[in-house]
């Protein structure tokens, strides 16, 4: 843009700046002011020099301009009509745009910028596209303007445009705004930058460099003056910017997002549909731009209910289409960042949409690209730098914002051919399902080291890390009709689920296995899956009645199919469920029947588990000595079969049996023997690296020591349990520990000791 063009479009530039700051589309401003959309478009694009006086006044009213901003706006219109502007184009474009009327949810960020004002220097405000970086920077500049008496200036560097504003052009504008005559501005960019630094050295100036493309774009504009503060907004992290401080702008909280919606459409409408408002902002991903767009659509359609727009946004395939209002389009905001990526990073970005879970690391990025780790690492860093993916709290893991994930899926749909999309999806599923199956099989009692995993610890680490992805992969495989893969995954999780029964949606995992077995028409596999599902229902969900029905069906199917192994398991599970329901005689009959059938099968794969259940039923019936005899015989048999299972399996399963002996001794009120038994099993669990089981044993040991009158030992064990139970899923267990601690007499004899948990 040459000098004459720049001056002739001063009014259009001011109009565009004020409209965007007000969060208005062209159509919304047209309705407010009565000026046609076409006239507004011509003014903003410079096709018309300026508005007539009456039009300029109604536009100023519609934009809520007042004071100096209104005066500059009207004067620019007047001078534009004369075609000999007296207002310097550069000076006008360096004026701070109007602040957003209601900056919701950013008070903490404003506090941070208030604190930064005294220190001066450079603060880079970074974050996702549409998160409100510009709004925050301009609001802070207005609030801090009194601290910078030598001027507050703002320049839109247009970093996401195909042709960003060159640093040399921005320097020229700033120098003229600072009073340098055009004829005195040196030609070389380096000399312009030096002149700017010299002018700012002893001044207090605040400068907003909005929408920078990268570090090189802003370096010439940065001043080292101690009294100056420069706020840089950028979608990239600007990690290479020397001597800068960074402010990462997070998404809005759900409460603040609803408040922003209220500002746009009115509190009455939000209050009338609170649930719909909460879902609406959630579907907007708590992204300020998305919430503003949704709010503008509702504001311009007062007859719409919030529930109507929510229903429209629920469909992820059309959500980005729905999040547009006039020239405010969320897809365009994402698209600008996408276009500036390298070709390799663009490919990775869109192909990561094939990952079914919530996050991903290098492993899955390599799967979707087929390139080497060093190349993928660079591409992920580029995506993170552009804030198109975000690093998670776990090192090396990344995630999409929900709306950016939808945009990535759109790009994959548009830019990858159908056969390639199908290949990508299946490659990801093959990797996730195959690896999860290999990892799950490592927990079987007779497992041996495999090519992928050498130990159970390795397998558990992968399963825990990629849980969100292999769980999602099973659902995708179900939709695609890959029933054999779905069934194999559920089967592989049998023993792993025993060690993680508090974690994971096992009922859903095994329910998918049941559906897959039915689809395949295999009765033996159906019986197995029904037993797994019934276990999840009564053990993980505490739904004994539903579990009973499921295991009864499993027994019927297994009997029909002649599968004695699944009959044995069904009897064993029925014994456990009936015991929980208090139907003890029936429970004993099923438990005994399961033991008779189990003799045909392996010790570690079946016998130890079903015989241990018989002992539990006997204990529930008050037949403690019989129960102890069953468990002690199991311990002896475990010694004889110790070479048939890995050490980890032996320690875990034997520990469970010995723990049952401790519970039976508790029933006999043999408190000291019970405590010593729990102490022994606690060390077994520690040796086997089973911390949650060790914490349970410490709880049982502490309770037994308390009953035995050994209060110091009890307190020590209970404290060990409390320290170990940190997972949010074991809060109930923590409550049990705290209750036991309160039962102890005061440690020092005082009235308050023992009443409060740590």
Give the secondary structure arrangement, pairings included.
Layout: H1 3-8, H2 10-21, H3 26-33, H4 37-44, H5 53-62, H6 67-82, H7 89-94, H8 107-119, E1 121-126, H9 133-144, E2 152-156, H10 167-177, H11 189-200, E3 206-212, H12 215-218, E4 229-234, E5 244-248, H13 254-265, H14 267-272, H15 274-283, H16 288-299, H17 306-313, H18 319-322, E6 324-325, E7 328-329, H19 330-339, H20 343-351, H21 362-369, H22 373-385, E8 390-391, E9 398-399, H23 402-415, H24 418-441, H25 456-465, H26 467-479, H27 483-492, H28 494-499, H29 506-520, H30 523-540, H31 544-561, H32 564-580, H33 584-598, H34 603-620, H35 624-640, H36 647-667, H37 671-687, H38 691-707, H39 711-724, H40 731-743
Parallel strand pairs: 1-4, 1-5, 2-3, 3-4
Antiparallel strand pairs: 6-7, 8-9
Helix pairs in contact: 2-6, 5-6, 8-9, 10-11, 13-15, 13-16, 15-17, 20-22, 20-23, 21-22, 24-25, 24-26, 24-27, 26-27, 27-29, 29-30, 30-31, 30-32, 31-32, 32-33, 32-34, 33-34, 34-35, 34-36, 35-36, 36-37, 37-38, 38-39, 38-40, 39-40
Organism: Amycolatopsis cynarae
Domain HTH cro/C1-type: 15-70
Protein name: Tetratricopeptide repeat protein
What would you note in describing this structure?
- Helix content is 64%, strand content 5%.
- It contains 40 helices and nine strands.
- The chain has a five-stranded parallel β-sheet with strand order 2-3-4-1-5, with helices on both faces. A two-stranded antiparallel sheet has the order 6-7.
- The chain is elongated, with a radius of gyration of 34 Å.
- Mean pLDDT is 88; it is low at 1-9, 83-88 and 749-758.
- InterPro entries: AAA+_ATPase (IPR003593), Cro/C1-type_HTH (IPR001387), Lambda_DNA-bd_dom_sf (IPR010982), NB-ARC (IPR002182), P-loop_NTPase (IPR027417), TPR-like_helical_dom_sf (IPR011990), TPR_rpt (IPR019734).
- Residues 15-70 form the HTH cro/C1-type domain.
């Amino acid at each position: 843009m040459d000098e004459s063009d720049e001056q002739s479009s001063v009014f259009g530039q001011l109009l565009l700046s004020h409209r965007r700051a007000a969060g208005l589309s062209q159509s919304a401003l047209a309705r407010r002011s009565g000026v046609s959309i076409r006239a507004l478009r011509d003014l903003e694009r410079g096709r018309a020099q300026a508005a007539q006086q009456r039009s300029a006044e109604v536009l100023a009213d519609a934009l809520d301009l007042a004071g100096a901003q209104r005066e500059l706006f009207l004067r620019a219109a007047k001078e534009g009509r004369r075609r000999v502007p007296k207002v310097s184009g550069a000076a006008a474009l360096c004026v701070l745009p109007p602040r957003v009327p209601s900056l919701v949810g950013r008070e903490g960020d404003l506090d941070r910028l208030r604190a930064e004002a005294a220190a001066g220097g450079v603060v880079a405000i970074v974050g996702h596209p549409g998160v409100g970086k510009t709004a925050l920077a301009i609001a802070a500049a207005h609030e801090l303007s009194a601290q910078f008496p030598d001027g507050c200036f703002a320049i839109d560097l247009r970093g996401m445009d195909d042709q960003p504003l060159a640093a040399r052009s921005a320097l020229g504008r700033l120098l003229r705004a600072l009073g340098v005559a055009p004829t005195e501005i040196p030609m070389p960019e380096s000399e312009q930058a030096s002149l700017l630094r010299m002018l700012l050295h002893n001044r207090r100036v605040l400068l907003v460099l909005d929408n920078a493309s990268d570090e090189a774009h802003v370096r010439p504009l940065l001043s080292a003056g101690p009294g100056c503060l420069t706020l840089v907004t950028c979608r990239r992290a600007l990690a290479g910017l020397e001597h800068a401080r960074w402010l990462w702008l997070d998404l809005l909280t759900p409460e603040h997002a609803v408040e922003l919606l209220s500002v746009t459409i009115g509190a009455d409408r939000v209050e009338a549909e609170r649930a719909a408002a909460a879902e609406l902002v959630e579907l907007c991903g708590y992204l300020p731009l998305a919430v503003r767009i949704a709010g503008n659509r509702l504001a311009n359609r007062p007859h719409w209910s919030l529930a109507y727009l929510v229903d429209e946004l629920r469909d992820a395939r059309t959500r980005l289409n729905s999040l547009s209002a006039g020239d405010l389009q969320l897809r365009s905001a994402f698209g600008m960042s996408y276009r500036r990526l390298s070709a390799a990073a663009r490919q990775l970005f869109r192909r990561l949409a094939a990952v079914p879970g919530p996050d991903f690391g290098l492993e899955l990025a390599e799967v979707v690209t087929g390139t080497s780790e060093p190349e993928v690492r660079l591409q992920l860093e580029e995506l993170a730098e552009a804030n198109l993916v975000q690093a998670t709290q776990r090192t090396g893991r990344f995630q999409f914002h929900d709306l950016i994930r939808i945009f990535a899926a759109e790009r994959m749909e548009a830019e990858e051919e159908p056969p390639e999309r199908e290949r990508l999806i299946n490659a990801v599923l093959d990797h996730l399902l195959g690896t999860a199956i290999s990892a799950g099989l490592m927990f079987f009692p007779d497992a041996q080291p495999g090519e992928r995993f050498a130990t159970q610890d390795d397998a558990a680490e992968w399963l825990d890390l990629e849980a969100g992805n292999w769980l999602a992969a099973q659902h995708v495989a179900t939709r695609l009709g890959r029933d054999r893969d779905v069934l194999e995954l559920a089967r592989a999780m049998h023993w792993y689920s025993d060690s993680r029964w508090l974690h994971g949606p096992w009922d859903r995992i095994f329910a998918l296995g049941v559906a897959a077995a039915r689809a395949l028409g295999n009765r033996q596999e159906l019986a197995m899956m029904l037993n797994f599902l019934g276990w999840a229902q009564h053990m993980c969900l505490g739904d004994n009645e539903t579990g009973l029905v499921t295991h009864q069906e499993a027994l019927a199917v297994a009997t029909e199919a002649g599968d004695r192994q699944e009959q044995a398991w069904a009897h064993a599970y029925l014994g456990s469920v009936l015991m929980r329901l208090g139907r003890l005689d029936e429970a004993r009959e099923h438990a005994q029947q399961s033991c008779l059938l189990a003799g045909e099968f392996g010790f570690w794969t079946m016998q130890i588990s079903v015989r241990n259940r018989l002992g539990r039923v006997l204990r529930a019936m008050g037949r403690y000595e019989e129960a102890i005899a069953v468990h002690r015989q199991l311990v002896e048999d475990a010694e004889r079969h110790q070479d048939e299972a890995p050490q980890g399996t032996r320690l875990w399963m034997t520990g469970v049996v010995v723990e049952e002996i401790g519970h039976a001794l508790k029933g006999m009120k043999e408190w000291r023997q019970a405590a010593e038994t729990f102490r022994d099993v606690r060390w077994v669990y520690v040796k086997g690296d089973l911390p949650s089981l060790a914490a349970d044993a410490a709880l049982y040991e502490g309770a037994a020591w308390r009953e035995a009158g050994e209060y110091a030992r009890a307190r020590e064990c209970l404290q060990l349990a409390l320290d170990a139970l940190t997972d949010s899923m074991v809060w109930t267990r923590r409550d049990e520990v705290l209750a036991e601690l309160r039962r102890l007499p005061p440690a020092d004899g005082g009235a308050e000791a023992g009443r409060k948990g740590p």
